[in-house]
Amino acid sequence: MTHTINKSVFLSASPETVWAHLTKSELLAKWFHPARADLVEGKDFELYSQKDGDRMCWGRVTSATPHSALLWDFTVGPLQGAMTRVAWTLEESEGGTKLMLEHSGLPEGAEGYGLVMALDKGWHGFMGQLHDIS
């Protein structure tokens, strides 16, 4: 069985505003992790800890369709360099945006389940912080 995390949130912000929070370095720091550069299609990225500035996660933006879809190849330290896939989908809805996340390619089996649970909890918290954007 392959582990995949799926999350969605309804936000009062426009798709353009949500997109900016997914791709602009100064806005990523407000809800996720700081980046030293904007996330751009075809470019590698690194995100850093708010607390100590250590590298938290990194990868490559493999596809970016402004205001509707963003795809990352993504890893964190405990994955020991194994890449996973994070797909963001933005749908305009009356009054705002529905933002969906699918994090796939996660470790299988009981030995990887603790990491999957930690990532699930992390995404839950990070996406919840997006409720504060406008």
Overall 3D shape:
globular
Count every helix, treating DSSP H or I runs of 4 or more residues as helices: 3
CATH structural class = Alpha Beta
Q: Count structural domains.
A: 1
Strand tally is: 6
Order the strands across the largest sheet as they lie in space: 1-6-5-4-3-2
At the fold tier of CATH, the topology name is Alpha-D-Glucose-1,6-Bisphosphate, Chain A, domain 4
Give the proportion of residues in helices: 25-40%
Distance between the termini: 38 Å
Task: Please give the CATH architecture.
Answer: 2-Layer Sandwich
Content-based structural category = alpha+beta
Mean pLDDT: 95
One letter per element, helices H and strands E, the order comes to EHHEEEEEH
Pfam family, one: AHSA1
InterPro entries: ASHA1/2-like_C (IPR013538), START-like_dom_sf (IPR023393)
Domain Activator of Hsp90 ATPase homologue 1/2-like C-terminal: 13-131
Family: Belongs to the AHA1 family.
Describe the structure.
With 134 residues, the protein is an alpha+beta fold. The protein has one domain (3-132): 2-Layer Sandwich (Alpha-D-Glucose-1,6-Bisphosphate, Chain A, domain 4). The chain contains 3 helices and 6 strands, in the order βααβββββα. It has helices at 15-23, 25-31, 110-129; strands spanning 3-11, 44-48, 55-65, 69-76, 84-93, 96-106. Strands 1-6-5-4-3-2 form a 6-stranded antiparallel sheet, covered by helices on one side. Helix 1 packs across helix 2. The protein is globular. The model has no long low-confidence stretch (mean pLDDT 95). InterPro entries: ASHA1/2-like_C, START-like_dom_sf. Belongs to the AHA1 family. Residues 13-131 form the Activator of Hsp90 ATPase homologue 1/2-like C-terminal domain.
